TrEMBL record:
Biological source species: Lates calcarifer
Protein name, entry field: Toll-like receptor 22
Key words of the record: Glycoprotein, Immunity, Inflammatory response, Innate immunity, Leucine-rich repeat, Membrane, Receptor, Repeat, Signal, Transmembrane, Transmembrane helix
Transmembrane parts of this sequence: 21-42, 737-760
Gene name of this polypeptide: LOC108885101
A Gene Ontology BP annotation from the UniProt entry: inflammatory response
PANTHER family linked: LOW QUALITY PROTEIN: TOLL-LIKE RECEPTOR 13-RELATED, TOLL-LIKE RECEPTOR
Taxonomic superkingdom: Eukaryota
Compartment(s) where it occurs, according to its Swiss-Prot or TrEMBL record: Membrane
PROSITE patterns noted in UniProt: LRR, TIR
GO molecular function: signaling receptor activity
TIR domain location: 787-928
Family: Belongs to the Toll-like receptor family.
Membrane topology: Single-pass type I membrane protein
C-alpha cells in the first residue's frame, strides 16, 4: 500500500520495534566515547563505532574473534541454532545484543553469564520453546545466586514458541530492573497474573501482541509501574475474555495498543474503563468491531490525546464520528481507503495539532482541514491529489509541517501557500510538478526545509525562491533540470544544503556563477549530471569561488560515460571544504595542484575512475585527510602513500585495484590507520606479502575488512587460494633464536677475552711482535747483501753506558771487530724498523745485551724477534745473548720466546765474569769468530749453561 504499510508488515514478520532502534542509538551515543575498539581482521564481521556487525553473514555459530571492547553485537538474520555457555564469555562490557531472526532452539545454562553490563537483549524470531530459569545464572553482583543481570533493561523474546507465560516468568523474576519486555507472537493462549506472583517487577513496557490469548486475567497488581501495554490481537477469530478485578491495576498505563484485538463489546468497554484515569495514547488499528462506538468510548477518557486508527477501512469520515474527541490533539487515519471527508468532520477537534490522512484515496485537499486553526502538522501524502487551490490551506496560520509527497500534483500556483506564514517543512517530492509558477517568491517566510525532488522540473527561473529567506534545506534531485537561470537562487542567503543530483545540468550552467548567492551553503550535491571538462586547464572563473563555507561537495558521474578531467582551479575558493566526492566521473587524471585550495579536506572519494597512478604531491596540501576512497582506479601500487605524509588518515578503502603486494613501508606511513579495506585485489602469495600476513593477524590497531577472504592470484598454482592460508614460516627468520645465539656468543667471547687478557696478555703481545718480525724477515731474506758489520749490538738505551765504556773499546778497539750501533750507524730519515732489519741482515752476528730494561723495551723486543727469525730461517749461528744482570727464569715466563731460546742455547753472563772479565771477553771473541753453522755451538758456548 505504501511506506507505512510496509513498515507494519515488517513488524508483523518479526522486525524490530522502532522504539528499540531509538533506544539502541541513544545508548550507543552515551557509550561511544568510553572504550574505542581497536582493529584487526575479523572472519565474518566488521566493527563500526564500537558495534560488531554480523548481519546476514550466514553464520551457524557465534564468532569467537570479536574484540572484548565492543558494546554492541548484532548477529541478526543468520542461521545460528544454538547459543553455548562460552559464546559471550569474553564480552564483559557488551550493552546491546541482537540475536533476532535466527534458528535458535537451545540456549545453554549460563550462556549470558559474563554480560554484566547488558542493557538490551533481542532474541525474537527464533525457535525457542523453553527458557530455563538458570539462563542468566552466573551474572551475580551479590551473594544471591540468581540476583543476576541487574543491568538488563530490555528483553525481546518475540516470535518464538514459548506458549506459556510461566516460561517467561522463570526468566524475568531474576531480572529485577527490567523495563521493557517484548513477548509478542509466542503462541501464548492465556495470561494469568498468579503465574507472575512473587515477582518484583519494574516493567514499564510490555508487548503481548499477536498472541492468541483467550483469557486475560489479572487478580493481583503484578505491573505496578506499567505505562505502555500492547495486547493487539492476531488474525484468528478467537475472542479474548477480559478479567481485571481491580481497575487500579492499570492506573498508570498511558499508552495502550489494542490493534486487531477481538473481544465482546462489553469486555472492550471494560478494558477501556480500566485505563480511564491515565490513558493518553490509544492505538485501535485494523479493528473488526463497531469502530464508531469504540471511538466514542475512548474519546470519553478525559486524558486521552492521541488516537491512532490505521487500516480500519473507513472510506468516509462523517460529521459526527469524532464528536466526543474534544481533547484529542493527534489523530492518525493512515491507510483507511478514505475517499470523502465531510467538511465538518473535524469541527469538534478544536485542539487538534497533528492530523495524518496519508495512504488514502483523496483526490483533493479536504475542506474539513480549513477549520483547524490549531493544526501544526498535516500529512496528505500518498493520495490521489492532482491540484492545489488557493483556498486549500486557508486559515492554517499555525501549520508547521505539510506533507504532500507521492501525489499527482502537476503545477503550483502563486497563491497556494499564502496563509502558511509559520510553515517550516514542506514535502512536495514525488509528484509531477513541472512549473512552480512563483509559489515561492512571496510567501513562506519561515520555511526551513523544501523537498521538490522526484518531480518534472526542467528550469529554475531567476528569483524562483526569493521569498524563502529562512530556507536551509532544498532538495531538487531526481528532476529534469537542465537550465539554471542567472541568479536563480537569489534570496537563499541562509541555505546550507542543496541537492541537485540526477538532473541534466551541464558545465556551462555552473560556470555562470549560479551558486554565488548561496554564501552560507555547507553542502552541494551535483552527482549524476552532465558536467564534463576536456582538460586540466584553469577556468577563467572558478564555479565555487564564492562558497567559502562549503563543507561537502559531490560532483557528477557522467551519463555519457565520456572520459573527463577536472580543471586545476575547480575547487578554488573552497577553503573550508571537508568532504569531496568525485566517484565514478570517468576521470583520467588529477592535477597535482587540485587540492591547493582545500587545506581542511578530511574525506576524499575518487573511486571508480581511470586514474591508474597517483602522485604523492597531490596529497601534500591536505595533511588533515582522515578518510580516503581509492577503489577501482586501476592502481598498480600503493607506494605513493609512503611519501604522501598522510599521518592522520584513519580510513582507507582501496578495493579492486591492480596491486599485488602491500609493503611494510606503506602501512607504517599511515600511523593513525584504524580501518582498511583491500578487498578484491590480486595478491601475490609468496614471501613478498609475508609481512602483510603477519600484520593482519597480529596488529591491534587496524581493522582489515574481510581479510579472511583475500585470494591469491599469483603464482598460478595458488590462484584462488586464501591469502591467510599461506604458510610463511620459510619466509621468516627466527629472531629469538638469533638473539639467543648472538647473546651466547657474546658472553663466550667476553669470557675468552677476559681469560686471555688476565692469563695470556704477554704471550699475545709477544706473538704480535713475532708476527711482525716474520713479515720483516720475509721481506728481507731475498735481499741479503755482503755483511757490512761483524755484529749488530741490540741494547736498551739505559744500558748504553756499559756498551760505550766496556763493550765498544774491547770489541772494536782491542779485538778489531766492526760493530753496528743504532745511535751511530742507523741511516737518518729511514724508518726505524727498516734500519733494524737492515742492520741485523747486514751483520754476521747479532749481540743482544739483555737486562730487565731490555725485556720491557718494545724496540728491543722487535730486534730479538727479527734476529730469531733469521736464526731459524737461515739455520746459522747468528745470535749471541749477553746478560748484564741476573734474571730468574720464572721472570722470563711472560717473554715466552726469550725463555725458549735460553732452553736451547748457551749465553754469556757479565755478572758471573766477576774479576775474570778477560775470560768473558775471550768467549765473546770466540763467539764472533766461529763459523756461522749451528753445529759449533756446543763446543764454544758451554761454560754459561744455567
Amino acid at each position: 500500500m505504501g511506506h507505512r504499510v510496509k513498515q507494519n508488515q515488517t513488524m508483523a514478520r518479526g522486525g524490530r520495534n522502532p522504539f528499540q532502534h531509538i533506544t539502541f542509538l541513544c545508548l550507543l551515543n552515551i557509550i561511544s566515547f568510553d572504550i574505542p575498539v581497536t582493529g584487526f581482521a575479523l572472519k565474518t564481521c566488521r566493527i563500526s563505532y564500537n558495534v560488531a556487525i554480523c548481519v546476514r553473514s550466514e553464520l551457524s555459530a557465534v564468532p569467537q574473534d570479536i574484540p572484548s571492547t565492543v558494546k554492541g553485537f548484532d548477529l541478526s538474520r543468520n542461521n545460528i541454532s544454538r547459543i553455548n555457555r562460552s559464546d559471550f564469555r569474553n564480552l564483559p562490557v557488551l550493552i546491546q545484543l541482537y540475536l533476532d531472526n535466527n534458528n535458535i532452539s537451545q540456549i545453554e545454562s549460563g550462556a549470558f553469564a559474563n554480560l554484566t553490563s547488558l542493557l538490551m537483549l533481542n532474541i525474537n524470531s527464533n525457535r525457542l520453546v523453553e527458557l530455563g530459569e538458570d539462563l542468566f545464572h552466573g551474572l551475580t553482583v551479590a551473594s544471591t545466586s540468581f540476583k543476576s543481570m541487574t543491568s538488563l533493561k530490555l528483553l525481546d523474546i518475540s516470535h518464538n514458541k514459548l506458549q506459556h507465560i510461566t516460561k517467561v516468568h522463570s526468566i524475568i523474576q531474576h531480572l529485577p530492573h527490567l523495563r521493557e519486555l517484548y513477548i509478542k507472537n509466542n503462541n501464548l493462549t492465556t495470561f494469568h497474573s498468579w503465574e507472575l506472583t512473587n515477582s518484583s517487577l519494574e516493567l514499564k513496557y510490555v508487548d503481548l501482541s499477536q498472541n492468541p490469548i483467550s483469557v486475560f486475567s489479572v487478580t493481583a497488581d503484578v505491573f505496578p509501574n506499567l505505562t505502555t501495554l500492547n495486547i493487539g490481537g492476531t488474525q484468528r477469530k478467537q475472542l479474548m475474555k477480559w478479567d481485571v478485578r481491580n481497575k487500579t491495576f492499570f492506573s498508570r498505563v498511558s499508552t495502550l495498543d489494542i490493534s486487531g484485538l477481538q473481544m465482546t463489546f462489553d469486555d472492550m468497554k471494560s478494558l477501556l474503563e480500566t485505563v480511564n484515569s491515565s490513558l493518553t495514547s490509544l492505538r485501535m488499528n485494523a479493528m473488526k468491531q463497531n469502530l464508531p462506538a469504540l471511538i466514542n468510548i475512548s474519546c470519553s477518557i478525559p486524558t486521552m490525546s492521541t488516537l491512532q486508527l490505521r487500516y480500519n477501512k473507513l472510506r468516509f469520515v462523517s460529521s459526527d464520528l469524532f464528536k466526543l474527541c474534544i481533547n484529542v490533539t493527534e489523530l492518525d487515519l493512515t491507510g483507511n481507503e478514505i475517499q470523502h471527508i465531510h467538511c465538518r468532520a473535524f469541527k469538534f477537534l478544536q485542539s487538534l495539532s497533528n492530523l495524518s490522512l496519508s495512504h488514502n484515496r483523496l483526490s483533493s485537499v479536504p475542506a474539513a482541514t480549513r477549520n483547524l486553526p490549531t493544526l501544526r502538522e498535516l500529512d496528505l501524502s500518498s493520495n490521489n491529489i492532482r491540484e492545489l487551490g488557493c483556498d486549500d490551506f486557508t486559515n492554517q496560520t499555525m501549520l508547521r509541517q505539510l506533507s504532500l509527497y507521492q501525489n499527482s500534483v502537476s503545477a503550483l500556483s502563486e497563491c497556494v501557500f499564502k496563509d502558511l506564514i509559520q510553515l517550516q517543512v514542506l514535502k512536495l517530492q514525488t509528484n509531477r510538478i513541472s512549473n512552480l509558477n512563483g509559489a515561492f517568491q512571496m510567501y513562506l517566510p519561515n520555511l526551513r526545509q523544501l523537498l521538490l525532488n522526484g518531480n518534472e522540473l526542467t528550469t529554475i527561473k531567476h528569483g524562483e525562491f526569493r521569498g524563502l529567506q529562512s530556507l536551509q534545506n532544498l532538495s531538487l534531485h531526481d528532476n529534469q533540470i537542465q537550465d539554471l537561470k542567472n541568479r536563480c537562487f537569489i534570496g537563499l542567503t541562509n541555505l546550507t544544503d542543496i541537492l541537485l543530483q540526477k538532473n541534466h545540468i551541464k558545465e556551462t550552467e555552473i560556470n555562470k556563477g549560479v551558486f554565488n548567492d548561496l554564501i552560507n551553503l555547507r553542502r552541494l550535491d551535483l552527482r549524476e549530471n552532465c558536467i564534463k571538462y576536456d582538460d586540466c586547464s584553469a577556468l577563467p572563473y572558478a564555479p565555487f569561488s564564492q562558497l567559502s563555507r562549503l563543507e561537502t561537495l559531490a560532483i557528477p558521474s557522467q551519463h555519457r560515460r565520456l572520459k573527463s578531467h577536472l580543471p586545476r582551479n575547480f575547487l578554488q575558493g573552497l577553503t573550508n571544504l571537508s568532504e569531496f566526492n568525485a566517484r565514478n566521473i570517468q576521470l583520467l587524471s588529477l592535477h597535482k595542484d587540485m587540492f591547493n585550495y582545500t587545506p581542511q579536506l578530511q574525506t576524499l572519494d575518487i573511486s571508480s575512475n581511470d586514474l591508474r597512478d597517483l602522485s604523492p604531491e597531490l596529497f601534500s596540501p591536505i595533511q588533515n585527510l582522515q578518510s580516503l576512497y581509492i577503489s577501482h582506479v586501476d592502481l598498480g601500487s600503493l607506494d605513493f602513500l609512503i611519501d604522501a605524509n598522510l599521518t592522520k588518515l584513519e580510513f582507507l578503502q582501496a578495493r579492486k585495484n591492480q596491486y599485488s603486494v602491500i609493503s611494510e613501508e606503506i602501512i607504517q606511513s599511515l600511523p593513525a590507520l584504524v580501518y582498511v579495506d583491500l578487498f578484491g585485489n590480486s595478491f601475490t602469495c609468496d614471501c613478498d606479502n609475508a609481512w602483510l600476513l603477519k600484520w593482519i593477524e597480529n596488529n591491534n590497531q587496524t581493522q582489515v575488512f574481510d581479510a579472511y577472504n583475500f585470494e591469491c592470484n599469483y603464482p598460478v598454482n595458488l590462484k584462488g587460494k586464501k591469502l591467510l592460508d599461506l604458510s610463511i614460516q620459510s619466509c621468516s627468520v627466527d629472531i629469538e633464536f638469533i638473539y639467543f645465539i648472538s647473546t651466547t656468543c657474546t658472553i663466550l667471547l667476553s669470557m675468552v677475552v677476559s681469560f686471555t687478557y688476565h692469563f695470556l696478555r704477554w704471550h699475545l703481545a709477544y706473538a704480535y711482535y713475532l708476527f711482525l718480525a716474520f713479515l720483516f724477515d720475509t721481506k728481507h731474506k731475498n735481499k741479503q747483501a755482503p755483511n757490512q758489520y761483524d755484529a749488530f749490538i741490540s741494547y736498551n738505551t739505559h744500558d748504553e753506558p756499559w756498551v760505550i765504556r766496556e763493550l765498544l773499546p774491547k770489541l772494536e778497539g782491542e779485538q778489531g771487530w766492526r760493530l753496528c750501533l743504532h745511535h751511530r750507524d742507523f741511516e737518518p730519515g729511514k724508518p726505524i724498523i727498516d734500519n733494524i732489519t737492515d742492520a741485523i741482515y747486514g751483520s754476521r752476528k747479532t749481540i743482544c745485551v739483555i737486562s730487565r730494561r731490555y725485556l720491557e723495551s718494545e724496540w728491543c723486543s722487535r730486534e730479538i724477534q727479527v734476529a730469531s727469525f733469521r736464526l731459524f730461517d737461515e739455520q746459522k749461528d747468528v745470535l749471541i745473548l749477553v746478560f748484564l744482570e741476573e734474571i730468574p727464569t720464572y721472570h722470563l715466563s711472560p717473554y715466552y720466546r726469550m725463555r725458549k731460546l735460553l732452553k736451547k742455547r748457551t749465553y754469556l753472563s757479565w755478572p758471573r765474569a766477576g774479576e775474570h772479565t778477560e775470560l768473558f771477553w775471550e768467549k765473546l771473541r770466540q763467539a764472533l769468530k766461529t763459523r756461522e753453522d749451528c753445529g759449533e755451538d756446543s763446543l764454544l758456548l758451554t761454560m754459561d749453561k744455567p
